[in-house]
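Lab manual, section 2.4: Encoding a predicted structure.

Procedure: take the sequence of the chain (282 residues), apply the prediction step described in section 2.3, and record the output as structure tokens. A sample record is shown.
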Amino acid sequence: MSRNAAEIAAEQLAFWNGPGGQGWLASYGRIERAIAEVGAVALAAAAARPGEQAIDIGCGTGGTTAALAKAVAPDGHVLGVDISQALIDHARAQNVANASFAVGDAAVHPFDGAHHDLVFSRFGVMFFAEPIVAFRNIRRALKSTGRLVLLVWRPAQENPWATVPVRAAQPFLPPQPRPPEDVGQFSFGDRARVEHILAEAGFGVPRFEPVDRPIWMGASVADVLAGAGRFGPLARAFAGAEPAAIEKAKQAIGEAIAAHERADGVHLPGACWLVTARPTAG
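Recorded output:
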């Protein structure tokens, strides 16, 4: 691993075992509701069956692991892997039957070789410092007949749920460092890049299915603003801003999302890729 890649991996480890994990737990209910619809599409595509062995990469608090474990019951098993100790602790506390959890980086985790029927991930694979290396390790975990099912975000410009609040708040907040384009929330939005990663890692030609769903942001504009800054880019920006600037930023966000408020909450468009692939022979 190059020095740069090592630094990126260390940053991800520190983030998810610090403010990232804490922020996710603080916003757990909001996040889970926001991605419930797109997550259900991915779980249906995974089509986990009784008796199968599966891995859930970036399992977080274990909600998707539990759904997969129910599907593989009674004789199957799901291993949930995440680099955040706090999130894994929460997942273990759920006492999910037919599942176990491990704190680890899926890029280097010592999975049982050629043992698993399914590797699944809901928004958990976009942060690898060296994605080809990571997916080679994941490929080794799969049986020759196994399958890979990933849900990832398409490019940022196709996801107003993420860009609209940030763009509205930016004029009032301290400048933030630009994250590397090849590591981060939208780093798997480039279809050609994902095809290259998987091909180099030993997978056949992947299938890409667009999944477009409204993303629930909160019960109302006021509710969205109450949760703003707990997790994600705005959390980092708010942490370094004066209270008056934060209030101005929130006011701007409220104005930007007001037109998206409905009786069942505030929804902004979201766009994902559902990526499925199988190992190549040999």
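Check your result against the sample. The mean pLDDT is 93.
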